[in-house]
Each structure stands twice: as structure tokens, then as C-alpha cells.
Amino acid sequence: MATPKKRTGKAAQNSRRANWKGAIPATTTCPNCSAIIPTHTVCPECGYYKNGFAKLKDKQTAEKIEEIKEKKAVMAEEKASKKTVKAKKTEKVEDEAIEKPAKKSTKKAEKTETEDKAEEKAE
Fold it and tell me: Cβ of 47: how many Cβ atoms within 10 Å?
């Protein structure tokens, strides 16, 4: 084995060591439970990997996951129904806004007709 001829200085030693950098591991979110996990690994929270479960901690976690999925589906349906109700309400309000001036004008016309009739009777 080769032996160094001279001692390496602190500056040269430290600048050489400065290039040893640790890389930050790539992460992603679990498509099943939305936990942050390293890429290409089984989710430690729910055991989900790619298109199925690689492992199940116990039956309760699988049941909880199914319940969460059902709740998300129900919430999505409720949001969609609320949006349609709001859209219907805005349509009704717009229709009423369009109809209201017409009603007022008919009332004025009725008043003028009654006034005209009263004038005719007075004559």
C-alpha cells in the first residue's frame, strides 16, 4: 500500500470532504391514504403498494380504509348536489329579477285603468 510523502493540509482535506453530500430521498404521497412515503415502497400507514395491499397490519385498518373511501364518495356526491342546488337558486333569482319589473308595470297599468274608469264615471 502506498504511503503519503507529505502531510495533507487542513484546507485541502476539508475542501475534498466538502463534496460528500447526502441526497434527499424522493418522496410521494400514498394514493390510498395520502401519507407521505418514499417512492417505490410499501406505505407504512396502510400497507398499500401500486394497485393493491402488500401487507395488512390487521383487519381493522382495512375496514377503516374502506370506511374512509366511502365517506369521500359520499362527500363528493354531497358537494355535487349542493352545486346543483346553488345553480338552481341562482336561476330562480335571475328569473324573478326578470319577472319583477314586468309585474310592476302591469300593476301600474291596472292603476291607470282604474283611474281612467273613475274619471269616466265622474264625467
Answer: 20
- Position 19 scores a pLDDT of 87
Query: The dihedral of CA 28, 41, 38, 68: what is its sign?
Result: positive
Q: How far apart are CA 117 and CA 123, in angstroms?
A: 10
Buried/exposed 53-66: b ≥16 CB within 10 Å, e otherwise: beeeeeeeeeeebe
Distance between CA 8 and CA 11 in Å, rounded?
8
For the residues 103-118, what does the mean pLDDT come to? 62
**Rounded CA gap, 51 and 54, in Å?**
9
Going by C-alpha positions, the residue among 40, 89, 33, 37 that lies closest to residue 56 is 33
What is the separation, in whole angstroms, between the first and last Cα of the chain? 134
Summarize pLDDT for 32-75 with one digit per residue, the tens: 888 999 999 888 888 888 887 776 555 667 777 788 888 888 88
